What does this fold into?
Amino acid sequence: SQTIHQWPATLVQPVGSPLSLECTVEGTSNPNLYWYRQAAGRGLQLLFYSVGIGQISSEVPQNLSASRPQDRQFILSSKKLLLSDSGFYLCAWSFGWQWNIQYFGAGTRLSVL
Amino acid sequence: GQQLNQSPQSMFIQEGEDVSMNCTSSSIFNTWLWYKQDPGEGPVLLIALYKAGELTSNGRLTAQFGITRKDSFLNISASIPSDVGIYFCAGPSGGSNYKLTFGKGTLLTVNP
It folds into this structure.
């Protein structure tokens, strides 16, 4: 069966510091991968998605970037964090003919102070 | 872009009561999804609907794909405290083969 791992679970970072969040999927090949951010207001905002190695689509121009160095690995990064980057970051995956069903990781709570 | 209007935004109910929430769109969807997010966790898929008029159950949960293909409903019967969380509807974003549009969620609180 497929599983998705996201780490760390929580992170407290100072303003101006770099960020690296990692997401990996096990049990499948060539998944579609997604990064979302959820602010306190509850809505899910799609940040990036990738349909293959090295391919990244950006949805919202901002202080973040994403990379997919391996088939089942998706990384969210920032060179310098802003206070507004605080939030709950979720990684998700989908696959094949069920591309429109996404499965989410447990999330990373990021606090930028 | 497409938007999903989810209502109500929040609900406060007593344990044992039934719950109903809905999601509407100005455009047609060919798939409707319902997710539940427990506090501090990622959303978990509850029910997927693929055909207009389809009625699907998952335990105490029942969801329906509206006949017009522009709405969907989720009902929870005999609520229990662990039903607490945020319920999201979602559907494929128009013009994209890979993205979903999410509603803003219904926050459910169950008083024991």
Observations:
- Chain B touches chain A at residues 31, 33, 35, 40-45, 48, 86, 88, 90-92, 97-100, 102, 104-105, 107 (CB under 8 Å).
- Residues 27 and 70 of chain B are 6 Å apart (CA to CA).
